[in-house]
Design a protein that fits this description.
The complex is a heterodimer of chains A (142) and B (494). Helix content of chain A is 71%, strand content 0%. With 142 residues, chain A is mainly α. Chain A has one domain. Chain A is elongated, with a radius of gyration of 18 Å. Chain B has 494 residues and is mostly helical. Chain B has a two-stranded antiparallel sheet. Chain B has a domain of 202 residues. Chain B is globular. The chains are: A mainly alpha (142), B mainly alpha (494).
Amino acid sequence: MNDIIVKSITRLVIPFLQLYGIYIILHGHISPGGGFSGGALIGSSLILYTLVFGVDRAQKKFSHRVSEIAESGGILLYLFVGALGIALTGNFLSNKAAGFPLGELGSLLSGGIIPVLMIGIGIKVASTMITLFHVLIQEESQ
Amino acid sequence: MIEQLPIINLILLLTTALVIPLFKKQRFMVTLILSFVVLFIVWLSALYLLYHVNTTGAFYYRFGGYSPTIGLELLINPFSALFTFFVITLLMIIFIYSTADASDGIHEREYGRYYILMFILLFAMFGIIYTNDLFNTYVFMEILSITTCAIISIKRKKKNYAAAFRYVMLNEMGSLSYLFGVALLYMVTGYTNIELVFQGVQDVWVIYPTNIIIAAIFMIVGLGLKAAIFPLHIWLPDAHSAAPSSSSAILSAIVVKVYLIILVKVLFSVFGITIIEALHIPSLLMVIGAVGIVMGSFFAIAQHDIKRMLGYSSVAQIGYIVLGIGLASSLGLRIAFYHVFSHGIMKSVLFLSVGAVIYQRNLRKVTAYNGIGYMMPLSIGMFTLAALGMIGIPLTSGFISKFNLGIAALDGGQGIYIIILVVSGILNAIYYLPIIIAAFLRENPENQIYVSKDKVPLLMIMPILILGAFIVIIGVYPAIIFDLVDSAVSTFSF
């Protein structure tokens, strides 16, 4: 897509899309949305980049290796935080029972482990979306 | 610490699946060693859990310590401990086989990925068996069917893609109709936890019978589609014959059984015996099982490809298990569970020994087995043993299954099904015996068969021999399995 208007608009829009995605992920525990919807926003911003600038440039920014590590890392973070509950004499995914501070209801730093889990889910969803898209495009060109 | 073991099993399996892609592709050995160590640890813990629940009793595991009315729950009782142990034991033996036979049509770059899929598969099966929540079961079921689809299509051939597409479409329909049933139950009871739903269903059965009936139909048909119960089996032969040999063994021996296990849970733990008897579901299941036994064998006779033949044979054997479940008595359920073991072991031996023949000589035609028994005595010998078990010759586990199924049918006043059992034994003989006769008693006219590998590696022969020994051991001493199965059956109330 070799069009100056599309390229400029994309350059302008992508930072805001990603910022909004991060906002939704971080506010997952106090407002609608969360890891999945925020991650989908970030993933679609990367898909937009691939559509406009081509898969080769997108691969330089976000290669298969990186997305593999991000995909595994997202769930590993989730599992690690969940397993902390076991270590702190609670059950898997224990929140208050394992002694995590719940904070004040409605503030950004509250909810114990839930914001951390949301970040893990967000990373996973964003990287999965972009990997699927790249794999589909590259299979077609082969 | 013991009550954390189930969740540690699940975490270990999932973590391994996530860590494997992080290794460098050349270091394939690292993947294999790590996988084996993890499988062994999980096997030990499953064994310990089996011992623990049979001595001290069942226990619950609650995620995050929430109460079961709002949270998720795992239930570890003799039933779930027994079947997780079965799954991990059989899978570990098949894993050893697959390390040597990874070349079966899988691209070299994908070797590691195959084990990722295997671990996610195992994770999903453990989740399904442990969980005490209907919706959680659905989530694990989706993971299981997507992973299975990937395992079927891993060979990257047109045939595999067609089989995988058909599999995923039909199984998605199965999952969704199961989910619809769960939604209808949630509508009238307000819970998805199996025990709470059970109580709720008993209370509202008189007020909202329509909901319960429709939910029961949707859940049974959905699970029947996924477990390949006879008229809904059309995806199974393609899918199981297209997959690599070790995966065919996993799919046919374990994955299909997991759906039957959910079916047992749904019938006896969710609806309860009084409701399903009132709906005449047991007698329907018995008829479906009996038709499946006969028709599956008829279709198997007509096959030319040996792996497709084994696939249709699985359809017939699932009929036995459904017949056992349909008797709706503790005797019937007991023999259904025993046959899950017995068929799991026999079908793994059949698929793995055929896999060894395909590995060495690339023979898939049923008619091409002339004289092969003398060239590959161990593999074909074990094939013969398992085939005799399928026919139901004494001293094998297949005999114990058929004999006790007959007794259970008589006990339930359903003597007519004994005729079905005898007919099915003859039909099984019609399609298994010609292969054995050709392999040992007929000369090979061309006297030279295309040989692609010099000999079958020891790692492939050993698992077949171990499983073959199991057929005889649990055929001669069925009490080993029956003791465990009896305590599993006692978790359901009749």
